[in-house]
């Protein structure tokens, strides 16, 4: 087993445990590179973070490295969740709880999740393309989870499910939502609907930690002193 170092995260992994495309992205450092750069600007010391879509735990581990942060992370695919647990165990200091499951807006319900060879393409949408296996899961209510665990930040990369979640969930007490948009699944109209849903929650597009499809919505915290590094970030 080889241990890769990706964005400062140690990843114990065999090449045959992921697809060739994901292995190449890990080896080159392309894997979730945009998210990895933005997360330290979206998550602050002491935050209580709910992460939806852990993947293999790279972004989870970056979040958990921030001072006094607690993380509750969900990954729908049990096979991917096992890899993520391995990464979390190596990199995190007991401040992450990883669960195999999904959160949705509303009462628990049956959810079909479609596993694909490139796990970053796995999703709730059969029409997204060929899949290896359909997994039957039961969702948990995201709002109930947010209240029970006093979550103040949500991070999500859920391959299109963010549209429905953010339209329907209330997210009480959440101050920031950092997510990857998937406009290839719901178009620019869907992006607009997400922005409207965030606005109804009092959350505003925050360019200070946003780049391309990786965007942050925040409560208005007033003006900040000009930050040269953020202004000139690539």
UniProtKB/TrEMBL annotation:
InterPro entries found in the cross-reference section: FkbM_mtfrase (IPR006342), rRNA_Ade_Mease_Trfase_CS (IPR020596), SAM-dependent_MTases_sf (IPR029063)
Gene Ontology MF term list: rRNA (adenine-N6,N6-)-dimethyltransferase activity
Pfam families for the chain: Methyltransf_21
Coiled coil stretches, renumbered: none
Annotated Methyltransferase FkbM domain residues: 53-198
Keywords: Methyltransferase, S-adenosyl-L-methionine, Transferase
Name of the molecule in the record: FkbM family methyltransferase
């Amino acid at each position: 087993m080889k241990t890769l170092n990706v964005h400062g995260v140690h990843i114990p992994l065999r090449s045959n445990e992921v697809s060739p495309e994901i292995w190449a992205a890990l080896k080159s450092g392309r894997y979730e590179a945009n998210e990895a750069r933005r997360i330290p600007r979206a998550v602050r010391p002491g935050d209580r973070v709910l992460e939806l879509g852990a993947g293999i735990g790279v972004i989870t581990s970056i979040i958990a490295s921030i001072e006094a942060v607690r993380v509750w992370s969900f990954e729908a695919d049990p096979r991917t969740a096992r890899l993520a647990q391995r990464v979390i165990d190596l990199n995190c200091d007991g401040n992450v709880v990883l669960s195999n499951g999904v959160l949705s807006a509303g009462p628990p319900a049956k959810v079909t999740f479609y596993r694909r060879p490139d796990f970053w393409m796995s999703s709730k949408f059969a029409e997204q393309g060929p899949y290896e296996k359909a997994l039957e899961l039961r969702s948990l209510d995201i709002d109930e989870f947010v209240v029970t665990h006093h979550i103040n930040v949500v991070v999500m990369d859920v391959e299109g499910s963010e549209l429905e979640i953010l339209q329907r969930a209330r997210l009480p007490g959440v101050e920031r939502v950092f997510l990857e948009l998937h406009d290839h699944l719901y178009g620019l109209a869907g992006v607009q609907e997400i922005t409207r849903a965030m606005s109804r929650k009092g959350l505003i597009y925050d360019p200070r930690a946003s780049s391309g499809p990786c965007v942050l919505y925040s409560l208005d915290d007033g003006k900040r002193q000009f930050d040269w590094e953020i202004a000139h970030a690539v």
